Amino acid sequence: MQEGIRCIVGLGNPGDKYQYTRHNAGFWLADRLASRFGLQLRADNKFFGQTGKLCGDCWLLKPMTFMNRSGQSASALARFYRFVPEQILVVHDELELPAGSVRLKKGGGHGGHNGLRDIISALGSKDFYRLRLGIDHPGHRDQVTDYVLSRPSREDQQKLEQAIDTSIDHIEDLLEGNFQRFMNEVHLDS
Fold this sequence. Notes:
Number of domains: 1
Strand order of the largest sheet: 2-3-4-1-5-7-6
Distance between the termini: 30 Å
Low-confidence stretches: none
Strand content: 15-25%
């Protein structure tokens, strides 16, 4: 069995203006995960975000740097605790998946996602895990910015919440390094 995840980074943008937008799907998972584990996330300036110890030796992080500077926060925590990229899970919204779909993958490019782009640059590696939460695509690339910074429909919101809850139900698999079992249970198509 592989070594498990030691750092979960939920991506989003800070502030009330962005709280319910599709781009904050990573924050939604982080908040629900913290709630499920009875964890209070606290502001930590040295990590440029909100952090808390989830369980064992796994940390939960919500970067408060805005999406395009997420790497500053993720790399600060990774350096401090000496996490290698393979111990990091980044949770983010994914345009290329239907709303409510979930996919776990290791490595790869940024696919135009500014949060991933900055994390890859800051870590100097693509070899971290990604939990991709499907938000669907607006249909044309010129609509992407407005789309990710807007609220999902009620139906899509429900699909996303179900995907997040299912992912959290199986998060222990990731912490234990049971990546295949997680994928078998969680890879959902809406």
